[in-house]
Amino acid sequence: MSDRFARLRRISLRPFPGKSPRSVAGQVFLLQVALVVLLVACGVFALVLQSQRDTDAEAKRRSIAVAQTFAHSPGVLTALQTPRPTKVLQPLTEAGRKSAGVDFIVVMNTKGIRYTHPLPSRIGKRFVGTIGPSLAGRVYTESVHGPLGQEVQATVPIRNPQGKVVALVSAGLKVKNVTNQVDRQIPIILAAGAGALGVATGVTALVGRRLRRQTHSLDPYEMSRMYEHHDAVLHSVREGVLIIAEDGRLLLANDEARRLLQLPDDSEGRKVSELPILEPETAALLTSGREATDEVHVAGPRLLAVNQRPTGADGGPRGWVVTLRDSTELQQVSGRAEVAGERLKLLYDAGLVIGTTLDVSQTAGELARVAVPRFADFVTVDLADTVLHGEEPATTATGMRRIAVHGVREDPPLYEKGRLIDFLPSTPQARGFHAGHAVLVADLSGSMGWHAQDPQRADAIVNYGIHSLIVAPIQARGVVLGMANFWRAKEHGPFDAEELSLAEELVARAAVSIDNARRYTREHALAVTLQRSLLPRALPEQSALEVGYRYLPAQSGVSGDWFDVIPLPGSRVALVVGDVVGHGLHAAATMGRLRTAVHNFSTLDLPPDELLQHLDDLVGRIDQDEESNQGAAAVVGATCLYAIYDPVTRRCAMARAGHLAPALVAPDGSVTFLDLPTGPPLGLGGMPFQTAEVELAEGTQLVLYTDGLIEDRTRDLDVGMELLRQSLAGHPERPPEESCGAVLEELLPERPQDDVALMIARTRALPAARIADWDVEPEAAAVAGIRAEASAKLDEWGLSELAFTMELVLSELVTNAIRYGMEPIHVRLIHDRALICEVSDGSSTSPHLRYAATTDEGGRGLFLVSRTAERWGTRYIPQGKVIWAELALPEPGGTGEPDGIAGPWAALLEDDSPDTLAE
């Protein structure tokens, strides 16, 4: 045996001569050098930052000291009271600035008008900075971009003898002067860092050299392989191995030797003669130092064949290697080992095949199939009916659903699959359910409790040849979910007590998987319910687009895909599609928050790029909340595409944040993908989004989708987009709903791995006959003419009932535009699902609704508009703003006017009293 060890040692070390550049010492040296460089770099960086901060603090202290000193200097108050303070103070401030080493000393009045400045041209102009805190009596420091550049300044008050602030003094330095002081210190800091780096690298080199000598320049793989060989010899052989030192101490014993000799845990390191477990003859052999070959010695109930060989022939430590082999009852041991091996193989196979899916029924079927015929002839699995729906089971064995039946034959008289069973308390199933332990019925023909459940069926089962039963409860996390029934027929002997534990172990392998499937079923149902509740139930009514949509949740779990159709003022419609990164409840909840945010931001009537910017800020805040609540939480992240279509102009404005470009199906059936500017995904921040506008012909189909539609593990993104193009091309007349179904049928497998949101919108154009617009001269007399033309247009549209209300709204909006807006002023009426009145002007100021007092002559205009219109609001355009109001179309047979509008408010039609506008 010692010869084998010597040969192994020579073989193991022979391939490793010389020094390897990938040795352990070399790798440790490189790691230490990298660590030292990192530490030194961090130290230098910290010193630079500290120096920067100290210099900034010194600049602020010097500015405060100079400003306070000048503010309390004698003669300053007297100079301020003279008719020309600048003449007296300018020489004093310049002299003080030069002597104090600051860049400027500025004296100003309480309104911020300078009396002094290093640049005489700046005297008399307003001070650049914040003077509010100093006017309140406090010293205030800040960094501003002033006439001298970026400045650090301190502002202090000048008080009269009564303590009132009568003037202010500001002193400061330019930032570049502060930076120059820091730059002068950097060479010293870098030199110190370089010295530390050199010393640390030298020490590291010495340590690496010593480590190289100790490891013989072996690389990690070579060392690992050598020790793996030794470990395999000592612990993987089916022989006991002992290594004994020259002085008789036991140096090492492998697992097999410990088992054969029943050695205690603290045996290593003790002398062999002191081990009380060993027989005297065996101990004498181990301490004799003589060679032995297959000597038989007694060790308790065993007979051991012992081999002993000396070590140290190649110059290593002297001692002995002993091998032990059990030679008793070989046949009996072999038989038992074979049975145990079969059972272990059954449990191993069960661990492989059970729980491959998160489906309760599938997992139960896998348990039944793995046990037949290796353990039982027939297996049935009964689960509480509530478990199939993801709920906790009841405390009784009633309401059990048979979900798996499997056997060596297909015609057993057992309860069929799918049957709901209520087990009587006397049955082994009920006893096992309540006790939580397996129950053995060795002879079914003599079991009256089992027979009482269904006597006729029980007789049929016994006559069929089934004679033995083990009922094992399926228990996980302290809760019994159901039972597994193992049946044996006449081809095999009855179950015995030893097989009871095997049945429990086999069922335990499946119990956790069944419980995981149950919990997954519950969470999946909750998540799907939550996600569907967050998605739109139905699309809103609008005239601009004919929309079809599809949403398919992923089979593996819910995700964060969403879509929306949002009506906007002026008959416009917003289309939204987005995708939150990740799966599960968190992604679905985040999707709901983003969808709500898009609805809220859309009420502000923002352009697509501005809306995505607000949404990006929101996702960033969500990420910060997650990090503060959960530590190192994953970044949420999301993609989104937002489009606004105007049926009046047939123009569509779009912007995207990391989302896939939409597809356009032209009226002739050709398909193109829009080349939109690519924005970063939501949550990254720092980069702007861009809006692109395209003009769409009437009948064009706009296709919005998420990546689950075209991306798949089996195909690239380009292949998916080409498949989408082919499925859309050549069908311009197909309705959007049919197009959605056709696209999903051609692109998606039966079980998609990711959520899919698809929305196809066919554009419509508002007829020109339903639009009327006029340019308005900026004169009050033009209001009456606009009212008359609008009234005539309403008569033409058959909306005469709305004439009075529209004239009132139009008068207020046009009068406000004339008095407070800017040219050009434009009026537009749109006859759609509602009557829309839009008044635009070149000003960006926004009107505010207020409630005028009874004594006020004006201020009721927008109040009347809000009371008479269904909705009103303001949106901004590049040329200014648009104030709009919507009036509901009259019901057939209705009046079309709000109650009471023709009475006391009718006289206000001639009094064009505007509301106040924001300055």
TrEMBL record:
Residues 894-919 are annotated as: Disordered. Residues 228-294 form the PAS domain. Residues 909-919 have a biased composition (Acidic residues). It comes from Streptomyces tropicalis. It holds the Pfam family sCache_3_2. Residues 382-524 form the GAF domain. SUPFAM superfamilies: ATPase domain of HSP90 chaperone/DNA topoisomerase II/histidine kinase, GAF domain-like, PP2C-like, PYP-like sensor domain (PAS domain), Sensory domain-like. It is found in: Cell membrane. The keyword Transcription regulation does not apply. It is a multi-pass membrane protein. Gene3D superfamilies: 3.30.450.40, Histidine kinase-like ATPase, C-terminal domain, PAS domain, PPM-type phosphatase domain. Keywords: ATP-binding, Cell membrane, Hydrolase, Kinase, Membrane, Nucleotide-binding, Phosphoprotein, Transferase, Transmembrane, Transmembrane helix, Two-component regulatory system. InterPro entries: Bact_Sigma-Reg, GAF, GAF-like_dom_sf, HATPase_C_sf, HATPase_dom, PAS, PAS-like_dom_sf, PAS_4. The keyword Transcription regulation does not apply. Residues 542-763 form the PPM-type phosphatase domain. This is SpoIIE family protein phosphatase. The chain crosses the membrane at residues 28-49, 186-207. PANTHER family: STAGE II SPORULATION PROTEIN E (PTHR43156:SF2), STAGE II SPORULATION PROTEIN E-RELATED (PTHR43156). Its main location: membrane.
